[in-house]
């Protein structure tokens, strides 16, 4: 049974898309078939991290929402290891991305006309069925809108990304309250961009007490990921980096 994980943050700049891309890749490295769908239709960007070029994309999520294609026709394999196998002989997994359009006219149409949000429900289920997924990550639009609320309601897990910042603390509280009202059973938190010298044990205790949710990762603020500038999967470029080790702990959490 595939697991649907919505990755969300109340504000932009938390590292949500980078975290999503890296977790999906680490799960694929462990042999899982992972789908990633970019529902940040107003400002899509996760395709850049995966190195997917606009000219190579025939269909996007926008095309599915406007009835131009089936949702699986918008799927593109972005990470795989065709010749590599796990120690038990099983093949490595793969990451399959459903991007949103970066064309200005199509983004403007979404802003002007909207779309039938209910189509996302059918789309998520079709992706899991047609692509035989183990996990489906939903990279959401920051803040609160209709498609975000729907994604949260349909998810098995809501993974909230926040920074140790007072604005993030307040905004995350809003999201947590909405998630409780939507009866989300599994709410988990990653605190990202933790500055050096901060007491991580105290920070974990404060966040868990404030939101009554498990902190599954505390990821360090680091210049290497800023220098990479979304030009690739950080965990693959820097496999022994402290940030990669933190991401791997979160991926292992989802594997258990």
From TrEMBL:
Q: Which Gene3D superfamilies match?
A: P-loop containing nucleotide triphosphate hydrolases
Give the top-rank taxon of the lineage listed in the UniProt record for this protein: Bacteria
SUPFAM superfamilies annotated for this entry?
P-loop containing nucleoside triphosphate hydrolases
**Boundaries of each CobQ/CobB/MinD/ParA nucleotide binding domain copy?**
5-230
Q: What is the lineage of its organism?
A: Bacteria, Pseudomonadati, Planctomycetota, Planctomycetia, Isosphaerales
Question: What InterPro entries would the database entry show?
Answer: CobQ/CobB/MinD/ParA_Nub-bd_dom, P-loop_NTPase, ParA/MinD_ATPase
Task: Provide the species name.
Answer: Paludisphaera mucosa
Q: Please give one Pfam family short name.
A: CbiA
| Name the UniProt record assigns to this protein | MinD/ParA family protein
């Amino acid at each position: 049974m595939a697991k649907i994980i919505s990755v969300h943050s109340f504000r932009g700049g938390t590292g949500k898309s980078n975290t999503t891309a890296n977790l999906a890749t680490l799960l694929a490295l462990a042999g899982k078939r992972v789908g990633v769908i970019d529902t940040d239709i107003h400002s899509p960007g996760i395709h850049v991290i995966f190195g997917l070029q606009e000219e190579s994309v025939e269909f996007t999520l926008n095309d599915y929402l406007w009835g131009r294609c089936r949702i699986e026709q918008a799927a593109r394999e972005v990470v795989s290891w065709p010749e590599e196998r796990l120690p038990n002989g099983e093949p490595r997994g793969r990451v399959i991305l459903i991007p949103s359009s970066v064309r200005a006219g199509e983004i403007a149409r979404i802003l002007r006309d909207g779309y039938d949000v209910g189509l996302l429900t059918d789309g998520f289920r079709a992706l899991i069925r047609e692509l035989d997924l183990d996990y489906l990550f939903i990279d959401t639009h920051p803040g609160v809108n209709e498609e975000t609320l729907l994604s949260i309601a349909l998810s098995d897990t809501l993974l909230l990304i926040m920074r140790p910042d007072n604005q993030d603390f307040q905004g995350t509280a809003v999201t947590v309250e909405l998630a409780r009202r939507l009866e989300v059973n599994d709410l988990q938190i990653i605190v990202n961009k933790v500055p050096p010298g901060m007491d991580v044990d105290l920070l974990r205790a404060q966040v868990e007490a404030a939101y009554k949710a498990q902190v599954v990762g505390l990821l360090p603020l680091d210049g290497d990921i800023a220098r990479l500038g979304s030009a690739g999967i950080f965990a693959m470029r820097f496999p022994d980096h402290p940030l990669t080790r933190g991401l791997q702990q979160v991926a292992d959490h989802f594997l258990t």
